[in-house]
């Protein structure tokens, strides 16, 4: 008999299962080690409550025979800053090792596609680690082609590398700009953007790409 599969929005009672899935996702082979450490169950309960009230995001769980074995986070955003079209992006898609090959991943993607259609989103995107070959082959079989590479680092790391590679005074410049942005936020004014020309510093070319 085929296993019973159900996909639904995560509830606060799923906190322990979500923590276990996150821990497996961040320690298993083929996944990036740069992801944040597993949160506490209490923190997950709070986060799940916020997602339940978010019209632009959904946190899904996938059940196999009544037990949570999969998760995916859906975000509805503009496809680009220059277009009015929206897309649904699937992030942190993960199925536990014990529940592979039963169709749970397909069920999570199917729910994402159904939500995209419901929200009149003509496009669906999915984020997968570049080194996760199995996940990328799975997404490719469903028609999702590679559009870019998502890179992740702490803010401190990026600021330190910029200061080391481009200008001795860049770290001080970034610190002063951060203070200005904080003051403007307190006054309710729009934030300033960093103007490279103001300090006569050059930046590297933007990467060619800019997301379970």
From TrEMBL:
Kindly name one Pfam family recorded for this protein.
Acetyltransf_1
Is Acyltransferase set as a keyword in this record? yes
Q: Which residues cross the membrane?
A: none
All copies of domain N-acetyltransferase, residue ranges = 5-165
Keywords in alphabetical order, please: Acyltransferase, Transferase
User: Which Gene Ontology molecular function entries are recorded, alphabetically?
Assistant: acyltransferase activity, transferring groups other than amino-acyl groups
Gene3D superfamilies according to UniProt: 3.40.630.30
Q: Does the keyword Transferase apply?
A: yes
Quote the protein name from its UniProt record.
L-amino acid N-acyltransferase YncA
């Amino acid at each position: 008999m085929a296993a019973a599969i159900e996909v639904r929005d995560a509830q606060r009672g799923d906190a322990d299962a979500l923590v276990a899935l996150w821990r497996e996702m961040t320690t298993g082979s083929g996944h990036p080690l740069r992801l944040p450490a597993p949160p506490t169950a209490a923190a997950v309960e709070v986060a799940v409550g916020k997602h339940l009230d978010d019209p632009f995001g959904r946190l899904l769980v996938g059940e196999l025979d009544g037990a949570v074995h999969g998760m995916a986070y859906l975000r509805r955003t503009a496809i680009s800053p220059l277009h009015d079209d929206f897309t649904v992006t699937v992030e942190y898609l993960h199925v536990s090792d014990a529940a592979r090959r039963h169709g749970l991943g397909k069920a999570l993607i199917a729910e994402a596609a159904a939500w995209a259609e419901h929200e009149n989103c003509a496009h669906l995107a999915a984020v997968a680690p570049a080194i996760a070959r199995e996940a990328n082959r799975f997404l490719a079989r469903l028609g999702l082609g590679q559009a870019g590479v998502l890179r992740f680092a702490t803010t401190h790391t990026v600021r330190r590398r910029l200061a080391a590679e481009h200008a001795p005074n860049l770290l001080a410049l970034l610190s002063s700009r951060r203070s200005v942005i904080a003051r403007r936020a307190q006054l309710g004014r729009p934030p300033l953007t960093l103007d490279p020309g103001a300090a006569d510093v050059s930046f590297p070319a933007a990467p060619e790409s800019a997301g379970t």
